[in-house]
Amino acid sequence: REITVGDARRFDSHGHGKHSKAHQRTLNRYAKQAFQYAQDHKWIESNPFNKVKTSALAGTRDHFVDSEQIASIIKQCKDPDLKLVIALARYAGLRVPSEVQTLTWSDVRLDGERHMIQVAHHKTKARKVPILPELKVLLDARKPAEGGGKVIMGSCANLRREFASLLESIKVKPWPKLFQTLRQSCENDLVRRGFNASTVANWMGHSVKVAQEHYM
């Protein structure tokens, strides 16, 4: 009850000296939600964070990893797990590490007319993503003769560091948000290939509004 609007603004101002603007808005949003709970239960009369900015910022979309560059990077990658993680992010738009680390071969359909991946994510409902020819070649080469099991067999704990080391070793300048940028590039690439934007957004697991604000 003692926390005022001024306190909330000082919290926001102090945070901008320590965090990125986007991260501080996330912290503000968490605080606002907590105080809203208190207000809903009539423990406080008003929410001191109502006048602090909490909306998410649009993502940075100033880098596009084209097909030629990613094909070259994958070709030069010697680690079979990392190679497939990069391909799943760039060609199927999977989230790294949350979605690639739980993906199993039973989720991957490589036979029949339509090749699809069933993707599960703890924050969104399961979705299906088409397997592009570039990704199918890599999956075909890695798929075990029998049974399921995880697609990525090793640890996913240090993927960003391993990817950054790979780029450095092959003299490619790392771009911001390594795997997120691949996911963004995938969505833009699919639209450029002629797929409907709403269909692509559904494959990626978000709305068209989110795609327009953060991806396209």
Fold and architecture overview:
This protein is mainly α and 216 residues long. It has nine helices and three strands, in the order ααααβββααααα. It has a three-stranded antiparallel sheet with strand order 1-2-3. Strand 2 (116-121) and strand 3 (124-130) form a beta hairpin. Helix 4 (80-92) runs antiparallel to helix 5 (133-142) and helix 4 crosses helix 7. The radius of gyration is 21 Å and the shape is elongated. The N and C termini lie far apart (43 Å).
Topology of helices and strands:
Layout: H1 5-16, H2 21-40, H3 67-76, H4 80-92, E1 108-109, E2 116-121, E3 124-130, H5 133-142, H6 159-169, H7 178-192, H8 197-204, H9 208-214
Antiparallel strand pairs: 1-2, 2-3
Helix pairs in contact: 1-2, 4-5, 4-7, 7-8
Helicity, as a percent range: 40-55%
Strand content: 5-15%
- Helix/strand/pairing class, anyone? mainly alpha
Order of helices and strands: HHHHEEEHHHHH
Number of strands: 3
Question: Averaging pLDDT over every residue, what do you get?
Answer: 88
What's the arrangement of strands in the largest beta sheet? 1-2-3
Can you tell me the overall shape? elongated
- Unreliably modeled segments: none
Radius of gyration: 21 Å
| Number of helices, counting only DSSP H or I runs of 4 residues or more | 9
Major β-sheet annotation: 3 strands, antiparallel
